[in-house]
From TrEMBL:
<keyword id="KW-0902">Two-component regulatory system</keyword>
<keyword id="KW-0597">Phosphoprotein</keyword>
<dbReference type="InterPro" id="IPR003594">
    <property type="entry name" value="HATPase_dom"/>
</dbReference>
<keyword id="KW-1133">Transmembrane helix</keyword>
<protein>
    <recommendedName>
        <fullName>histidine kinase</fullName>
        <ecNumber>2.7.13.3</ecNumber>
    </recommendedName>
</protein>
<dbReference type="Pfam" id="PF00512">
    <property type="entry name" value="HisKA"/>
</dbReference>
<dbReference type="InterPro" id="IPR004358">
    <property type="entry name" value="Sig_transdc_His_kin-like_C"/>
</dbReference>
<feature type="transmembrane region" description="Helical">
    <location>
        <begin position="21"/>
        <end position="40"/>
    </location>
</feature>
<dbReference type="InterPro" id="IPR003660">
    <property type="entry name" value="HAMP_dom"/>
</dbReference>
<dbReference type="GO" id="GO:0016301">
    <property type="term" value="F:kinase activity"/>
</dbReference>
<dbReference type="InterPro" id="IPR036890">
    <property type="entry name" value="HATPase_C_sf"/>
</dbReference>
<keyword id="KW-0418">Kinase</keyword>
<feature type="domain" description="Histidine kinase">
    <location>
        <begin position="257"/>
        <end position="468"/>
    </location>
</feature>
<feature type="transmembrane region" description="Helical">
    <location>
        <begin position="167"/>
        <end position="194"/>
    </location>
</feature>
<dbReference type="InterPro" id="IPR036097">
    <property type="entry name" value="HisK_dim/P_sf"/>
</dbReference>
<dbReference type="InterPro" id="IPR005467">
    <property type="entry name" value="His_kinase_dom"/>
</dbReference>
<keyword id="KW-0472">Membrane</keyword>
Length: 468
């Protein structure tokens, strides 16, 4: 059902809608042109035959009147010629120059409204034309009637075509409805055909939305039956993914190698600095401060390299977890004690029941230390940091501080690598701590989120599966 809704979802700016509307408009123009031409031709055939018939009567009646006038008077001859040519659908009458009705066909004797309207007409063209009178249709013309070289007035001829015109209008209406239905069917067929033709483009879009750094090498788009242009696009897209996968692999390898190669000598340097600080008693204050600063920076650089190494291992799938049942209350108490000792901050724990979680003890401890360290950096020294433990369907750990908070528009990015909310108030670090937290929590089958308000503090929430 979701796929059907997506197919028929209308986006006025999409290529599918634009092509459908464009082709449907051209089809409508062509279909309407054919329909109009067909209607015109039908009209010409229908009206043309009646016009010719009326024209023939207009030419024949004077000759017939002259023949009858040889045996009768001219007036009688005209009447007999009219009676001979009139029928139920043909009306003839003669009006003298002074407006007197000299002769008329028998079917005009029934003085209904139509007959009265016909007899009252005066302005009728010489060439046959269609007139609408009292919801009826007539082909009419008027000619000067000359018999034996003398003018006897105006001859009016009217051919009733109401039945044919009604049938013609019904045919036109049916043709219009049929054309509309055909146009709708064509539009639907065009939409489905374009939808099918653009399916490879939709696959490219869906694949691009799902591709991540971890599966660059495996992501491939297959469009063997697609149009040539789409196949070329898919081939170019696959080549781009291959280049990105190679570049990403080289970057991961570089970061891993550099982190590994630099960590060992820096660890040695840090060890020697600590040894000198512990054993030498004749150092001046300046020398001791310099050595302590060097040792602190070396330690910070070692931790940075360890974070980079962990991220590189996670990207390559080589970051392993030892998942076991871990007593969460005891672990949190241990971490809180460690953090309170090195930060000299008050760290409170709120917990009721004993909670056992499935996690990697060492990695979970690293996660909590990172979050507590983050809370220490961005909250006032006099304010406590609270660790809350509870469980519903999963175990939940909350690290709460009452610090500066995080802007809402930046909360979605704080777990990105090297991202720092505000460089001007950042105290230390390289923006890897929260990225490490998310990587480790995800690796243990959990989830980490943040809720924060400026000036009120932040709450980082970790959910982990419970050991059954």
């Amino acid at each position: 059902m979701a796929r059907i809704r997506n197919i028929w979802r209308i986006d006025p700016f999409s290529l599918r809608v634009r092509l459908t509307v464009g082709i449907a408009a051209v089809s409508a123009l062509g279909l309407s042109s054919v329909a109009i031409w067909t209607i015109w031709q039908m009209q010409q055939i229908l009206i043309g035959s009646h016009k010719r018939y009326v024209e023939e009567i207009a030419q024949r009646l004077p000759r017939d009147a002259e023949i009858y006038s040889e045996m009768f008077s001219v007036a009688t001859g005209i009447q007999k010629a009219i009676d001979n040519l009139a029928n139920s659908q043909t009306f003839l009458w003669v009006i003298s120059p002074d407006g007197i009705n000299r002769a008329k066909s028998v079917n005009l004797n029934a003085m209904d409204t139509t007959a009265i309207a016909l007899l009252s007409l005066r302005q009728v063209p010489a060439s046959p034309q269609v007139f609408a009178i009292n919801h009826r249709y007539f082909v009419m013309c008027a000619r000067t009637l000359r018999v034996n070289g003398k003018s006897w007035g105006q001859l009016f001829i009217a051919q009733d075509i109401s039945d044919e015109q009604t049938m013609f209008l019904a045919v036109v209406q049916s043709l219009g409805v049929t054309s509309l239905l055909i146009l709708m069917a064509i539009t639907v067929a065009i939409a489905l055909y374009i939808q099918r033709s653009l399916q490879p483009l939709m696959q490219i879009n869906q694949l691009a939305a799902k591709v991540s750094a971890a599966d660059l090498g495996q992501a491939k788009l297959q469009c063997d039956r697609a149009p040539t242009e789409v196949r070329e696009l898919a081939r170019t897209y696959n080549m781009m993914l291959e280049r990105l996968a190679a570049a990403w692999e080289q970057q991961e390898q570089f970061v891993s190698n550099v982190s590994h190669e630099l960590r060992t000598p820096l660890t040695i340097v840090y060890g020697y600095l600590q040894s000198v600080l512990r054993r030498e008693t004749n150092l001046t204050t300046t020398q001791r401060d310099a050595l302590e600063t060097a040792a602190s920076e070396a330690d910070r650089t070692i931790r940075l390299l360890q974070d980079l190494l962990d991220l590189a291992r996670a990207d390559s799938g080589h970051l392993h977890f030892h998942i076991e049942a871990v007593p969460l209350n005891a672990l949190v108490a241990e971490v809180a004690g460690m953090a309170q000792q090195y930060s000299n901050r008050e760290i409170a724990i709120e917990a009721n029941d004993e909670i056992i979680v499935l996690a990697d003890r060492h990695r979970l401890k690293q996660v909590l230390l990172n979050l507590i360290d983050n809370a220490v950096k961005y909250s006032d020294f006099s304010l406590p940091i609270t660790l809350k433990l509870d469980q519903l369907e999963q175990a939940r750990i909350q690290v709460c501080d009452r610090g500066v908070g995080i802007p809402l528009q930046q909360q979605a990015r704080i777990f990105e690598r090297f991202y720092r909310v505000d460089e001007s108030r950042a105290t230390s670090g390289y923006g890897l701590g929260l990225s490490i937290v998310k990587t480790l929590v995800d690796g243990m089958g959990g989830c980490v989120t943040v809720a924060s308000r400026l000036g009120e503090g932040s709450v980082f929430t970790i959910t982990l599966p419970i050991a059954v």
